[in-house]
Amino acid sequence: MKQETALNILKSGKNVFITGSAGTGKTYLLNQYIQYLKERRIYPTIVAPTGISASHLKGQTIHSFFALGIRDTVVDNAYIGKLLEKKYLINRFSKLQLLIIDEVSMVSPEIFDSMDKILRAFKNSSEPFGGVQVVISGDFFQLPPVSKEFKEKRFAWQSPAWKELDLKSCYLQEKFRQDDNRLVQILDEIRLGSVSESSHALLESCFYKKLNSKFNPTKLYTHNVDVDRINLEELNKLKGKPYTFKYSSNGSEKNIEKIFKTALVLEELTLKKGAIVIFIKNNTEKKYVNGTTGVVIGFDGETPIVQTTSGKKIRVLTEDWTIENDKGKTIATVSQIPLRLAWAITIHKSQGMTLDSAQIDLSKTFEVGQGYVALSRLKSIDGLRLMGINEMALRVEPLTLRIDEPIKKASLKATKEIESYSKKELKKSHSNYIKSLGGLLSLVLIEEERKLLRTGK
């Protein structure tokens, strides 16, 4: 399915599941949809299973929004009864009209069912998710839910609530990240559960390959302990003067803490000339994205100057990470230099990034999907240097293989349905949807709102 088709389905107010391989623009599509809604004064609630995944769309964690604490089991009636006594939750859920759930591959069926049960209770409705419109995004070939024990049912799509939502599937297939057919073939074969001999040979040719790069590209590891050790060791090797950047903030302590839990931004960042760094924010004006790598070539006063892998020199100024309330107003801000040390990062933290080149160690892969996520960060196989690989690295979950084809067929059906609409019918469908949510229909008012959003007011 093309992005334009998927956006038309989203604008029609259906419950939707957006999926597709890595690099097909799932997050980009959601951002377009969210922008469309905000311009009409409709403010969706965006949640994701982890802080890092939530930060991609300026959302919050599922556990935080649904007041789940640290539980990973389905909530019972007694727990829901306690939640129903809390005024702030009554206020929160009474306003909820549209829920966007991102990175659903990491959401367990227990957590998915808990969201459903809580919303049914607060909305006093027997409809799935209490009648709230639900938009879900993610790729089940990527990182699965964390589990300490074996479970027969481990994915959100195995939840009874998933089936009841009657989701329209949008399987995006046009790739925007990869421009190398050889890498695309490897990734597609991993998704099919059968990597060919020629692809294995191509990966083997990348073992300790010398990369055409001005500096050592980022290393991706499966474990935090390797990442922390390497970054500290490499920074200490540099002899220059250290520059330390501390964050500034505005808002309540509780909300500031949320930002640090849900984003890659650091409270304190120490850099030296020669440090390998990675950008952790998107900035179209300065032409860097979350995942752009480079080296610190100096400082202008206290401002770091980074030369990216493409040769572009960037004077790196502070960026803002924010939390918005239900009406889209900013209630907390953290300002900091949008960089992290990047001699090494974890595969988990790399999800959502686009890398020109990387040195990847898959020798300690312990979970299906890790190899796929790591390799799919790259634009081309030319940018890959493998440092190790084990049997688990190229595996995918058999259950995911089983449902992939039915999802594709459902997406084809949804495409045919939306394309059967005339332009007039489609426009009416979009207008009715905005009207049902109490949004703006006047083109003049929409344009005014668009201008306000651009200025951040």
Automatic annotation (TrEMBL):
Keywords: ATP-binding, Helicase, Hydrolase, Nucleotide-binding. GO terms for molecular function: DNA helicase activity. The keyword ATP-binding applies. Pfam families: PIF1. SUPFAM superfamilies: P-loop containing nucleoside triphosphate hydrolases. The keyword Nucleotide-binding applies. This is Putative helicase. The lineage of its organism: unclassified sequences, metagenomes, ecological metagenomes.
